[in-house]
Amino acid sequence: MVKLTVTFLGTSSAAPSKSRGLPAVAIQREGDLLIMDCGEGVQRQVLEQGLGLNRDTTILITHLHGDHVTGLLGLLQTMSLAQRRKEVVLVAPPALFDWLRLTSELLHIGLTFQIRFVPAKRGLVLRTQHFDVTATRADHSIEAFCYIVREHDRPGVFFPEKARALGVPEGKLWSRLQGGRKVTIGGRTIAPGLVVGRRRPGRTIGYSGDTRPSKRLSKFFFGVDLLIFDSTFASKDSDKALERKHSTAREAAALAKECHAKKLVLTHFSARYKNVGNLVKEAKAVFPATTAAADGLSIQVDYPEE
Amino acid sequence: MVKLTVTFLGTSSAAPSKSRGLPAVAIQREGDLLIMDCGEGVQRQVLEQGLGLNRDTTILITHLHGDHVTGLLGLLQTMSLAQRRKEVVLVAPPALFDWLRLTSELLHIGLTFQIRFVPAKRGLVLRTQHFDVTATRADHSIEAFCYIVREHDRPGVFFPEKARALGVPEGKLWSRLQGGRKVTIGGRTIAPGLVVGRRRPGRTIGYSGDTRPSKRLSKFFFGVDLLIFDSTFASKDSDKALERKHSTAREAAALAKECHAKKLVLTHFSARYKNVGNLVKEAKAVFPATTAAADGLSIQVDYPEE
Fold first, then answer.
1. How far apart are CA B237 and CA B272, in angstroms?
2. Of A64, A178, B26, B34, which residue has the fewest beta carbons closer than 10 angstroms?
3. The pLDDT of residue B49 is above 80
4. Contact present, A11 and A294 (Cβ < 8 Å)
């Protein structure tokens, strides 16, 4: 099984604390690296966590608040110092692209690689070799997006005994059937469905960025294997969550329950809470499969059926 | 004695390492805080070192390379989240000011305080209540400045026995004389020089930013109490120092010797050196009063004559 690993690089909200840096989440799958939001300090965490500067890298920015963006400059610069040549794909609200061009010039951030700019929008945003990225609008104080990273489906399980019973010899023809193509043997055509189970869905990770919960998001995140959700406040500060267009831990849990997520990770904690134990408790009362993110925490994402 | 403390917030060159962050140095003197360069991560170090977000703050930027600047955004944003009202003085090459205005708007960094922009230039740049800041041109790949922070002179030592011998009664008149003003007593005028020693020079800290050594800098930094100097490379990599317009540790030491600095601190180390022991050794052979900077290291600056 190919590992799909989510690593939290920064888990504070607007201001960092001694133990939490600004927002960023990494997703690794073999040579692929996706980074969701780039808070200040992300390059140091990429180094610390050994994520590498030369992977097939896609960066997804949810919105243009400084604390979700400013780490981008240092990350790109350090990739260049490491003589990266491969392009980086950058998905973001398009105003970021002009800012990045201007800033790179003014701050002499000479890039050794191309950036492929992909404007964030509702629906399918990007298809890579191993993932689809879809987005919807968040409910935040400025234009903001939520993302789902969806691994491509895998072929169904291959049943060797069925293939043998149908007289298909082991080897190339098995691979062909497993790949979803039919084969012809002794004048008979054998459809892959006869020897291969149904295609198995890939794993899905949902990332809310900064947002209020909403009906749209319950629908958008339906059935995700891992939901990473804004959990800035405790319930006692729900007035602040409402005012600043963030969510409480309990609201994150209610949404996870409503959208039938498999697991919930709370993140983007306000620095006012020295300890997030109470937020986790409030969330678990609603949705037991809840974990609190911490800087450096890694989580393996399992296949839905396994 | 009022303490004058230099704290190193980041001591790497262009890219951070696991133990060194990007360039920034803090100078504290009672309620005053000066920050020289603002590498990514500076706000986290300000927090870590307990420097406070509401001091009388002056920020001095040497040049517009990303690794010396990008931490500025987060620092200003976090000061605003802490509801700072006092202005911040920002000394920098003026192109930074436009960039900062544009970036603050685009990245929604709503400031709760004014920034007083002071363009860097040769000569006296800024006079604050306790310091003069002077600058000269560095020898780097782009326009860059070196700074000296010079504490104002203190009044000379007061000699009570001399005052008494001249018939000046203890109290207000002593303060007046100590403050450098004459007093009249029984028809006689007594000049402060009769009871007060010579004014004592304040402490001086020189900061090179990124530069090659030069004659101009030897002259500029003449006699500083503490010299913080570019020490990116070891002597074996002196070709790289030359090419990239940086200095070796040995060159920093030779300059410290030539300008009769009291103490030298090496900083801005290339991440290629896991251990800077060799750089320190090379420098000490030339200028024994040499220390290597480390993230979080604090140094007290002594008065010249003490």
1. 11
2. A178
3. yes
4. yes
Q: Judge whether B41 and B16 are in contact, CB under 8 Å.
A: yes
CA distance A52 to A79: 9
User: Min CA distance, A108 vs chain B (Å)?
Assistant: 6
Instruction: Establish if B64 touches chain A: CB-CB under 8 angstroms.
Output: yes
Q: What is the pLDDT of residue B291?
A: 98
Digits of tens for pLDDT over chain A (306 positions)? 899 999 999 999 989 999 999 999 999 999 999 999 999 999 999 999 999 999 999 999 999 999 999 999 999 999 999 999 999 999 999 999 999 999 999 999 889 999 999 999 999 999 999 999 999 999 999 999 999 999 999 888 899 999 999 999 999 999 999 888 999 988 899 999 999 998 889 999 999 999 999 999 999 999 999 999 999 999 999 999 999 999 999 999 999 999 999 999 999 999 999 999 999 999 999 999 999 999 999 999 998 765
Q: Do residue B166 and residue B294 come from a single domain?
A: no
Same domain, A137 and A57: yes
Note whether A124 and A134 are within 8 A (CB): yes
Q: For the segment B57-85, what is each residue's pLDDT rounded down to a tens digit?
A: 999 999 999 999 999 999 999 999 999 99
Question: Does A305 map to a domain?
Answer: no
In a domain, B306, yes or no: no
A83 sits in the region (left: phi over 0; alpha: psi -120 to 50; else beta) called left
Distance CA B42, CA B10 (A): 7
Same domain, B129 and B25: yes
User: Based on the domain organization, do B50 and B126 belong to the same domain?
Assistant: yes
| CATH code, A209 | 3.60.15.10
Q: Which residues of A touch B40 (CB under 8 A)?
A: 40-41, 43-44, 70-71, 73-74
d(CA A270, CA B45): 18
Integer Cα distance of B28 and A168 in angstroms: 80
Number of structural domains, chain B? 2
Asked whether residue B17 is domain-assigned, the answer is: yes
Is B291 in the same domain as B170?
Answer: no
The rounded radius of gyration (Å) of the Cα atoms in chain A is: 22
CB contact, 8 Å: A105 with chain B?
A: no
Identify the domain containing residue A246 by its residue range: 4-154+200-300
The separation between CA A71 and the C-alpha centre of its own chain, rounded to angstroms, equals 18
Determine the residue type at B54: N
Q: Which of B32, B67, B210, B225 is catalytic?
A: B67
Q: B251 CA to chain A: closest CA distance, Å? A: 24
Provide the ipTM. Answer: 0.90
Sign of the torsion angle spanned by Cα atoms A131, A134, A139, A142: positive
How far apart (Å, rounded) are the C-alpha atoms in residues B48 and B296? 9
Same domain (yes/no): B283, B179? no
Q: Would you call B78 and A106 a contact, using CB atoms and an 8 Å cutoff?
A: no
Q: Are strands A298-300 and B131-137 parallel, antiparallel or unpaired?
A: unpaired
pLDDT, residue B189, reads 92
Contact (CB<8Å) A16/B43: yes
Residue A151: which H helix or E strand, with range?
A: strand A145-151
Q: Which residues of B107-117 are buried (b: 16+ CB within 10 A; e: fewer)?
A: bbbeeebebeb
DSSP class of B220 = H
Of B64, B66, B142, the CB nearest to A73: B66
